[in-house]
Amino acid sequence: MDKTLKVKSLFISDLHLGYKDCKANYLLDMLKHIQPEVLYLVGDIIDFQSLKNKLYWPNSHYEVLQQFIAMQQQGCKVIYIPGNHDASVRRYANHFFAGIEIKQQVIFQSLSGKRFLVCHGDIFDAEVCLGKWQARLGDVLYDLLLFLNRWYNKARRLLGLEYLSLAAYIKSKISGATLAISRYQDAALKYAKKQNLDGVICGHIHSAEIVYKHQMIYINDGDWIESCTAFVEHHDASMELIFWTEQQKSIEKISSNVVHAA
104: which DSSP letter? Predict the structure, then answer.
């Protein structure tokens, strides 16, 4: 993609900077090709939990933060909504850091007039998780999925093949994971409905999709651990999910119905 795509709004979450599986290089490439008027950082931008266990901070992770600051200085409004892995930043809600505004959550009004709650999504965990031991088991299994995903894609690179999220594929085939995602969607939309909103835009569960449910719109912008996805609103009021790895040098729709989300 040779020229920059200008969009109204760009939503990204779950970068997990400071974690070894963060796909910072893909994200940097996307940010060089997409120019938003407003950038929403929807939580788990820096993985402070991972950094407590092991210091991991390659130059590409530093460059991502520098890119956010540069975008703000060039006129892009940047709003940072912390998640559970960067929850310590929540104490600075309603303050600015390097021109970046920190908020607990925001109400986003699309160009078509629809109103969405924008939050990370960890506030819905209580209605999804069955208990502490199940949550712990889920963490262990997820780490295993990421391990498999890491080595699977190392092998693909050696064969000259493009990146493919094995972790996302496996999760899509596990009925328990599908049920948990559905419960998460219901909890998010229930919360938004109480505020008389049209839908919700969130992250947290690393599962990018747009779903029409209960006469509302559920949007998850995905992550930069597995799927390398973001959500954009174009200037014509259309909205879509985008997928970005070394294979993509242009916007690729990953859902045929996303353009109707507005």
Answer: S
Give the CB-side neighbour count of residue 81, counting CA atoms within 13 A.
24
In angstroms, the CA 100 to CA 72 distance is: 7
Q: Per the structure block, which two tokens stand in for 126?
A: 């209580």
For residue 151 the two structure tokens come to 């080595």
Residue with tokens 């209960």: 214
Residue among 76, 60, 99 nearest 4 (CA): 76
CA distances from 247 to 6, 16, 218, 250, 252 (A): 21, 22, 27, 9, 10
Domain 5-121+199-260: which topology?
Purple Acid Phosphatase; chain A, domain 2 (3.60.21)
Residue-wise pLDDT for 3-62, tens only, equals 788 999 999 999 999 999 999 999 999 999 999 999 999 999 999 989 998 999 999 999
pTM to 2 decimal places: 0.85
Contacts of 80 (CB under 8 A, 6+ apart): 41, 45, 89, 97, 100, 101, 102, 103
Q: Where are the domains of the chain?
A: 5-121+199-260
Q: Which token pair is 241?
A: 């999910």
| Maximum CA extent, the chain | 51
Is 195 exposed, middle or buried, given 0-12, 13-18 or 19+ CB atoms closer than 10 A?
A: exposed
Return the closest-CA partner of residue 219 out of 87, 108, 130.
108
**pLDDT, mean over the chain:** 85
Q: What gap in Å lies between CA 26 and CA 11, rounded to an integer?
A: 15
Q: Which two tokens stand for residue 219?
A: 């949007």
